[in-house]
TrEMBL record:
<feature type="site" description="Increases basicity of active site His">
    <location>
        <position position="141"/>
    </location>
</feature>
<dbReference type="InterPro" id="IPR011004">
    <property type="entry name" value="Trimer_LpxA-like_sf"/>
</dbReference>
<keyword id="KW-0808">Transferase</keyword>
<dbReference type="InterPro" id="IPR001451">
    <property type="entry name" value="Hexapep"/>
</dbReference>
<dbReference type="InterPro" id="IPR020019">
    <property type="entry name" value="AcTrfase_PglD-like"/>
</dbReference>
<dbReference type="InterPro" id="IPR050179">
    <property type="entry name" value="Trans_hexapeptide_repeat"/>
</dbReference>
<keyword id="KW-0012">Acyltransferase</keyword>
<feature type="active site" description="Proton acceptor">
    <location>
        <position position="140"/>
    </location>
</feature>
<dbReference type="Pfam" id="PF00132">
    <property type="entry name" value="Hexapep"/>
</dbReference>
<protein>
    <submittedName>
        <fullName>Sugar O-acyltransferase, sialic acid O-acetyltransferase NeuD family</fullName>
    </submittedName>
</protein>
<keyword id="KW-0677">Repeat</keyword>
<dbReference type="GO" id="GO:0016746">
    <property type="term" value="F:acyltransferase activity"/>
</dbReference>
<dbReference type="InterPro" id="IPR018357">
    <property type="entry name" value="Hexapep_transf_CS"/>
</dbReference>
Amino acid sequence: MTARPLLLIGAGGLAREVIAAVRLLPDVWNPVGALDDSTALHGTLIDGVPVLGGLDSLDDHPDAAVVACVANARRPLSRLSLVSRLGLPDERWATVVHPAAVTSGARLGAGTVLLAGVVITTSLEVGRHVVAMPHVLITHDDEVSDGVTFAGRASLGGGVVVGESAYLGQGALVREGVKIGAGAVVGMGAVVLRDVPAGQTWAGVPARPLRGESA
Ligand SMILES: CC(C)(COP(=O)(O)OP(=O)(O)OC[C@H]1O[C@@H](n2cnc3c(N)ncnc32)[C@H](O)[C@@H]1OP(=O)(O)O)[C@@H](O)C(=O)NCCC(=O)NCCS
């Protein structure tokens, strides 16, 4: 099999983690470069992969698959904004699954990234451009919308619904059946027992609104 050239969008820590994952799949992916609008990075290497230029140079690489390596708890909508700015068809987006992830036949949307040790326990559906960092747990009947970010060790009980572009911090635990609204942020270490409204930031044990928002 000929490895498909892969361009990373973003040249930060997540991009380096994706590079490490795809290097374990040399027959599938060939990471040829990263694009980042930070001009200071242009011409540098990230873990041996060249930063080729800004996002406006994407058209110079029409044959490469693309993966958005952007995730930020303070800007949970940023990855899907980037995706819509680039306007690529789904077939250009790479779905990257670390060989040590367990997917149980789940259907993964275009552009989704699962890093080492992610476990999905049944054949559910995961949206497009989802990022699950190491050791994330997604269980039976969960619904994961487009653009969701799970930091490492975030865990969902069964039947949890996670709305578009929500961000779950490291080690967050979500009780079965709870809904996390679109664009909501759940702080690291939170234990979420109740629905989190869209756009709010909740943290703590048990999780409560962080900024005095009404629950
Ligand atoms: C929830 C979060 C987004 C808030 O970030 P922030 O808006 O910058 O908030 P601040 O750090 O200014 O903290 C605001 C208050 O919330 C508290 N707080 C922040 N995060 C908290 C958390 N996870 N649990 C409990 N309290 C928290 C702070 O102690 C502070 O309280 P104070 O006002 O009484 O001093 C952030 O702390 C977080 O958990 N991010 C996820 C980090 C993560 O998982 N990263 C993975 C990277 S790979």
